Amino acid sequence: MKIYLHLHNNPNQAEAGTPNMASGNPLFEDTTSKAGVVELDPPHQVEELCQGMNDPNSQPSMKPNITVVSSNFRELLECPVCLNAMYPPIHQCCNGHTLCCTCKPKVHNRCPTCRYELGNIRCLALEKVAASLQLACKYQSSGCQAIYPYYSKLNHESQCGYRPYNCPYAGSECTIVGDIPHLVTHLRQDHKVDMHNGSSFNHRYVKSNPHEVENATPVLDLVFHFAQVFSCFGQYFGLHFEAYQLTSAPVYIAFLRFMGDDVEAKSYNYSLEVGGNGRKMIWQGVPRSIRDSHNKVRDSFDGLIIHRSMALFFSGGDRKELKLRVTGRIWKDK
């Protein structure tokens, strides 16, 4: 289904020297002789049509018939400067060329297409037609079958459960994104993370100069260790171990992250245990989804926290070498 605009122009109202609003804009040139009419509403009514674009409670449509938008029309909704989809207010010059509200200040009030002065003209026709569209989520190929109004689609896609995951390895500024199988392969091949099968684990951490952490700043991680990835219950979990400064005290923190969404993560529990010299510390919790960054998990103290003095006590010996053995297990709620 293609959508057309038919504008009713009164030639008697044209004035000499007034730029032609239809000149150079295919939105107006291609539709004057075609069937289908869109009547323009006052600006406040157009804004009411668009008010759902940032509403997180907007509900998707599961209608089997999707409004098919031609590639030419998609181009009309694309800003010529940033090439992103345009949202109200959509601006246009006196010749009808459009651009988004974000880019308008960047072009110094000059149309990037014809160089005419932009002014403050709204393209209400394009805004209303966009408000009438329902489009499939861009992650449809990954499994999302929802259909959203044009102005709600962007907000949905930022939270869509089928959107790709960021690489959970925080030891470097890794920009890789993808689904879970892709990230597991990436962690193994590119970050050399150890892979293990089973729901129980035993990890040893050794550092010859544990006093280094005293020189850390509150925002500097001297040690980050994506220790291991475990495969169990048909899912993947990552064990993190990190040294950092908590106010003025050097500490270590260990926690487990679930390689999947938060809803699934809440189906599992895990425990961590560390000890030595007749002492023992135990932590039990719910693994956090890798949707949450490791900084967010760490800064919420959602894990086993060990102060350096206690870690050295667990290590035994002359307290000059850190030797920690972290054991744990993962189980699924019944």
TrEMBL record:
Its EC number is 2.3.2.27. It holds the Pfam family Sina_TRAF. It comes from the Eukaryota. One of its GO terms (cellular component) is cytoplasm. The keyword Cell cycle does not apply. Residues 79-115 form the RING-type domain. SUPFAM superfamilies: RING/U-box, TRAF domain-like. CDD domains: RING-HC_SIAHs. Pathway: Protein modification; protein ubiquitination. This is RING-type E3 ubiquitin transferase. It comes from Linum tenue. The lineage of its organism: Eukaryota, Viridiplantae, Streptophyta, Embryophyta, Tracheophyta.
